[in-house]
Design brief:
By secondary structure, this protein is mostly helical. The protein folds into 2 domains: 2-165 and 177-591, no CATH class; 599-673. It has helices at residues 2-6, 8-20, 24-27, 32-51, 56-59, 89-112, 119-138, 142-160, 171-174, 185-214, 219-225, 237-251, 260-263, 269-278, 283-298, 306-327, 333-357, 362-393, 409-423, 430-444, 448-473, 484-489, 495-513, 515-534, 545-571, 581-591, 596-643, 650-673, and strands at 64-71, 81-87. The chain has a two-stranded antiparallel sheet with strand order 1-2. The N and C termini lie far apart (62 Å).
Length: 674
């Protein structure tokens, strides 16, 4: 009991927003301000408790596994199941990414969502989401983690489709896509739900296989069990790893399940910042990081596990490149950021994968986590700033923007601070250090093709980021040309909105200034902790100064290769793009998302709609409806006949009573005789 009291922040961190969300409807009875204050206070409390865990990274004897009896299963092959909280470097880092960023997003939401008639529902799902994400991050076993995992999926569905009226009048605000691929919020929410649930179903099969092989669902117990797994069960490890990874693919929007995330931009911008930049899409990366030690240890006697790590690395690298190319030609502001999120998560998966193929995994593992941290900060800032831009321009399309830097100077400055982190501009921005650590880990892992894909993606990132800035802030003021009212409304948002994204943008600069020190500290922390876990104490940690310089030089060069043409075309407005007909044809393919999304609808969605329509006509209308009508007609006919018995004549009524009593007496006699 003393242990639980000593480490109460790890429990209250997720419990307060999770259970407190249920009281949001009650808080609304005291007025809108009380409701808003209560909702924000829950995330503030979660942030406070998360920050209280940071000193444990150096002072506590990690890992700390707080357990409490839950399900007694004496005959089960996995033994009893306990409730538990796992405190280790991974859970502390994730909690301190989720909670503080969530607090800033909640503060931003007060003004951004002001006047929305469904604010109580909004606050409920936002707090419920935060609580489930923290529960997911701090759970010590798969069963408990799945409650948080499915909880964030449910909240994501509800928040993506928050503006569920699907009104055509909201086309410019809350729809996503154009032409055949234009979807309303409710459709986008259902799409996210179905695609991520498919990944979750496959992942559940993997969890079952892994728990049967190792005899436990607890992460620390699994790390011990895998060291001595019987040879007869070792064959289950690789399929279990790949199946679990498929769940991470769905949640983190990697190929082949990446298509739900761009369409999730139908939700409000704070939702995009919270769920699809800072938190939920990172759950897949967290999952790979959580199971990483289990399968890394397993490689000591099951060499085929390396195929799992190779799959993680290659899927991450390819996804990163493909999503970056799709961002090149996107016509919507938040969609560019969405493709960018998919691409950057691909970098994180690449890092985790190459870490597993290296003798010393600290570079890749640390690079993946460090990029998760830096990306959450700068991408949340970019999404919140994008929300302010869309709010002012009354449109999500680039064609309705332009020349906004003078009208929205604070928003412009914030995006100028956050965008270099996305591009990986050297030295002064946090994204540079984490991205270069990933590229360095790919280089020293002995897989040069992955390194080449990584630096090629750097060039693409530089291009689409500068293009985004150019289309929004430079050129002709397309959004308000000749429109006096539009010109007047184009201004920076209120302080309650710009402060959160400016703070986040400033943090990216702080992370850049102290980036090298942060990198060295995290590498040494992961080396010490996970070195003890997997038994690699005192191993060489890095590829050396020459490798660092080579990586940095290659990354900076590719950045210039991508950024300079975009600057000339979209900022300086040179007419070079008018003559590039080949690129216009390529742009059509990219805007169609390589026809991957259309293929999904053609192969799966549309046939299922036709099958369901046929089933509705043949079964529901042809069988069930007719059966219901037949039963109703039979009941009606029977009722008509029985009505004739009730004539209202007293003599007949008495006679029927006597007949009924006789039947009952006969039944009693027969039963007693039997």
């Amino acid at each position: 009991m003393d242990t639980w009291i000593n480490y109460y922040p790890a429990i209250l961190c997720w419990a307060v927003p999770l259970f407190g969300s249920a009281l949001n409807p009650i808080a609304s009875k005291f007025g809108n301000k009380a409701r808003d204050l209560y909702a924000v206070s829950l995330s503030a409390a979660a942030s406070l408790f998360a920050l209280m865990m940071i000193p444990w990274l150096t002072s506590a004897p990690l890992p700390i596994d707080l357990r409490f009896p839950w399900l007694e299963l004496p005959q089960s092959p996995i033994g009893n199941i306990q409730l538990g909280v796992l405190i280790d470097p991974l859970s502390i880092i994730i909690a301190n990414v989720v909670a503080p960023i969530s607090l800033l997003i909640m503060i931003y939401s007060i003004k951004y969502m002001e006047g929305d008639p469904s604010m109580t529902r909004y606050w409920f799902f936002m707090n419920l989401f935060i609580g489930n994400m923290l529960l997911l991050s701090l759970s010590d076993n798969f069963i408990q983690m799945m409650f948080g995992w499915e909880g964030v999926g449910l909240c994501s569905y509800a928040l993506i489709g928050f503006w569920n009226r699907d009104s055509k009048e909201d086309w410019l605000k809350s729809w996503v896509g154009e032409g055949r691929e234009a979807y309303p919020p409710s459709h986008a929410g259902m799409k996210a739900f179905v695609m991520t649930r498919f990944g979750d179903l496959v992942m559940l099969l993997g969890i079952i296989l892994l728990s049967l092989a190792l005899g436990s669902v607890n992460f620390l117990d699994m790390q011990e069990s895998v060291r001595a797994i019987p040879g007869s069960l070792g064959y289950l490890l690789l399929p279990a790893a790949l199946l679990i990874f498929f769940g991470a693919i769905g949640k983190s929007a990697q190929l082949p399940l990446m298509e739900w995330l761009p369409d999730a931009m139908a939700g409000p911008s704070p939702v995009s910042a919270l769920i699809h930049a800072a938190t939920m899409v990172k759950a897949g990366v967290y999952l790979v990081a959580r199971i990483f030690p289990i399968f890394y240890i397993a490689m000591t006697h099951s060499a085929e596990i390396i195929y799992f790590f190779q799959a993680v690395a290659w899927i991450g690298a390819i996804t990163s490149f493909v999503a970056a190319t799709e961002a090149l030609a996107s016509t919507e502001l938040k969609k560019v950021l969405a493709y960018s999120t998919v691409s950057q998560i691909g970098y994180m998966m690449l890092a985790m994968g190459v870490a597993g193929t290296a003798a010393e995994f600290y570079l890749g593992y640390t690079g993946g986590l460090m990029h998760l941290m830096s990306h959450a900060v700068f991408k949340a800032s970019l999404f919140l700033a994008a929300g302010a831009i869309i709010h002012a321009a009354k449109s999500r399309f680039f064609r309705d923007m332009g020349g906004m830097r003078k009208k929205m100077p604070i928003t412009f400055a914030s995006m100028l601070l956050a965008s270099p982190s996305l591009m990986g501009v050297p030295l002064l921005f946090g994204g540079f250090w984490s991205k270069d650590l990933i590229l360095e880990s790919a280089l020293v892992s002995g897989t040069p093709v992955l390194f080449i894909i990584g630096i090629a993606t750097v060039a693409l990132t530089g291009f689409y980021t500068v293009r985004m800035l150019g289309l929004v802030f430079f050129g002709e003021p397309r959004a308000y040309s000749g429109d006096v009212d539009a010109s007047a409304r184009l201004k920076d948002p209120s302080r309650a909105m710009w402060m959160p994204f400016l703070i986040l943008a400033s943090i990216t600069v702080v992370l850049g200034i102290f980036g090298y020190s942060e990198r060295e500290w995290l590498v040494s922390l992961m080396a010490e902790y996970y070195g003890n876990v997997v038994g690699l104490v005192g191993a060489t940690l890095e590829g050396g100064l020459a490798t660092q310089l080579l990586t940095g030089l290659a990354s900076a060069s590719c950045l210039l290769v991508g950024a300079i043409p975009a600057y000339l075309i979209y900022v300086k407005q040179q007419s070079i793009r008018q003559s590039l007909s080949l690129f216009r044809r390529i742009a059509v393919i990219l805007q169609k998302r390589y026809y991957i999304n259309i293929a999904y609808y053609s192969l799966f969605v549309n046939p299922l709609i036709k099958v369901s329509g046929w089933l509705e006509i043949t079964l529901e209308q042809g069988v069930f409806n007719n059966a219901n009508k037949g039963i109703a007609n039979m009941a009606g006919a029977l009722a008509q006949r029985l009505r004739r018995v009730q004539t209202g004549d007293l003599n007949i009524n008495v006679l029927m009573m006597l007949v009924g009593m006789g039947i009952l007496a006969l039944m009693v006699i027969l039963v007693s005789w039997w």
